[in-house]
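Recap quiz, item 2
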Amino acid sequence: MTAFLTRTRGRKRLHWTDWMAYAYLTLGVLLMFGPVLWLVLSSFKTERELQNYPPRLLPYVQKMETVPGYDKPLPIYKVTAGPLAGQEVAQIRRIGLISQVVKPSDPKTVLKVPFKDRKAVEHVALATSNYSKLFERFNFFRFFYNSTFITVMATLITLLVNSMAAFALSKYQFRGRGLVMALIIGTLMIPPTVVLVPLFLIVRDFGMIDSLWGVIIPGAATPTGVFLLRQYMLTIPDEILDAARMDKASEWKIYWRIILPLSAPAIAVLAILSIMWRWNDFLWPLIALQKQENFTLQLALNSFRGEFTTDWASLLAMTVLTLVPIVVVFAFLQKYIATGIASTGGK
Amino acid sequence: MSDLELRGVTKAYGNVEVIKGIDLKVEDGDFCVFVGPSGCGKSTLLRMISGLEPISGGDVCIGGDVVNDLGPADRGLAMVFQSYALYPHMTVRQNLSFGLENLRASKAEITERVTATAQMLQIEMLLDRRPKDLSGGQRQRVAIGRAVVREPQIFLFDEPLSNLDAELRVEMRGEISRLHRRLNNTMIYVTHDQVEAMTMADKIAVLRDGRLEQFGRPLDLYNTPDNIFVAGFIGSPKMNFFPGRVEAGGLRLETGTVVALPPGKFMLNEGEQVTLGIRPNGMQPAETGLPLTVSGVERLGGESYLYGTASDGTAVTVHCAGQTKIEPGTQIALTLETGEAHVFSTQSGQSLLRKGA
């Protein structure tokens, strides 16, 4: 692995193409991981730090100190000019261009320092309160449960329904098979926004509006999934099915014991796609779910964005938590994506 | 009883008739081979017997019962496929026990039968492997094992040896024959290789274009073919055919040679267009006789084959014992052993042999 990663064209020194390759790859890493890194670092910043301009990469917090005689911890500043230059002081309040400060060693004497002659004392620290606040002030687990329930159930139903359709469309000869397939593929040409209103009316008439099933059911059968699985199943030889029929296997058993295990790579691909679709889905849940207790993570994220104010600290922290499951799924299943796509191409 | 009878069986895809009415009776315990050129319908016929392909007309009877409407599993058959069709995601053991599980056999019985079958086919050490880890010959054994383990009334083989190399094919041929002697079941075996047919079969059914051309014991087919097609198909190298016409009780070939035939053996009409069929070993190089321009010589050591053309352009193959000294490009003459000759009507292709002669 190391030998593979450090392989270069130049024998001893780096060939110029090696430099180009590394430059290109580094650029790619920066482009792809830069925003994610920025997001994660920002999620540990205080609201104040987030508003700071110009923005800084690392999360800083101001040093706070409890001074006798004051209830709350006071922010610490370093005076840069005047008689107190070089000393650390705690600010009590700021009035116009003047800060009222005290020395922590002498909390009784209130001093006045010009606003521009002081500098905040800061150190790098993680504002984990962004995260703990999610659990204290918001019902994060509720949203997480809703999202997980929808993703898991919808993916299971999608896999079941799509693989059965694909089995029928790939392994049975019947009149109109091509037409059915064309209709399924044809639905890909209809933008989802066009069917939003009729879909809403249907789901409402089934009484599924504002329930998680109202999100799960409408998207269970996907043309992409049927197509993907069908193309894969076409490569399974019919003789294996005939052999199973000679072995007295029912058609259901052929599907369950033969077709499904043999389609595992394609099913893994569809599972990953479905998990990502469902987890990141926003538009339809926004329409179908109304009560906050039914919200998915994506909807909860949206609710942090108000018309006048946006709770950036919570928003960023929650975004990170929302990303984690997808990253985990991807990390564990990414080898199936590669093998699945490679082996759907040809045997 | 596990005899098989086909009565006027037909198969049509739309307007295209691929099996055009076949009547056949395979006795209990027979090893019957369906042979024919590719596209003759032999595999289709096998699949119709198995029930995997519905029949368009006629009756399929197994053990005296019409099974037209029974599914493949309920006919008491087992099939070995050309591509083996092993379940790739199951181990050999699971491959063998899958059918028994579906028959709801008990766990103990499954284990017992799988072990017994594996021992018989010498695949015990492969039981926990998957098909992709097996060689071609081993896969073949597993495929046969999967059929044997279910103890069917009739075995069906669909060109099972065509994916093996020549050496292994000869070995497996012997093995299947031994299996047949041991189990004494009815077996139906499809192949396009007439050598397989000749060496393994109790009975051969020669098929062409969805019709049964001849059905009988291998040597009967070899010695008394019903028609030109069977004569040309059975036997290797192929029989030589010379066009000619009946003249004064004998034959005048297109080459001008006159051949005298054993009197009374054939039903001949004066002036009729006929085809003389004679096997490569029914001719010998001689001083005078049928002239032949030799174009190629194959010396196999113990025997030699001469390839050439007669004066009318007919391609001719001659078998010589030993190592011939004849060189390509020379002109030789051939004597025909008329006792070995076959005569066919050129128009109908049917043999003119007098029945009972």
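The longest helix of chain A spans residues 312-345.
The two ends of chain A are 27 Å apart (CA to CA).
End of item.
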